[in-house]
């Protein structure tokens, strides 16, 4: 699964620079995550870095973008190789 930023986001700006794939950007009102770029940090870190730094816990798994660990790893290789 990719991750999703909910409307509880306070636009604190800490998640965007932590994303190693550049999947996080400022949306019209809050930050958004591009599911085509999000690997939940698989290939880079053991845990999603945006989740680690988020002060309001507003970055859950996106139920509309389910992916296995192997699929996330394959996406990582597509993005970074």
TrEMBL record:
Entry superkingdom: Bacteria
GO cellular component, one term: cytoplasm
4Fe-4S ferredoxin-type domain span: 1-29, 31-64
GO molecular function ontology, one term from the record: metal ion binding
PROSITE patterns: 4FE4S_FER_1, 4FE4S_FER_2
InterPro entries according to UniProt: 4Fe4S_Fe-S-bd (IPR017896), 4Fe4S_Fe_S_CS (IPR017900), PSI_iron-sulfur_center (IPR050157), YfhL-like (IPR047927)
Record keywords, A-Z: 4Fe-4S, Electron transport, Iron, Iron-sulfur, Metal-binding, Repeat, Transport
The protein, known as: 4Fe-4S ferredoxin iron-sulfur binding domain protein
Organism from which the protein derives: Halothiobacillus neapolitanus (strain ATCC 23641 / DSM 15147 / CIP 104769 / NCIMB 8539 / c2)
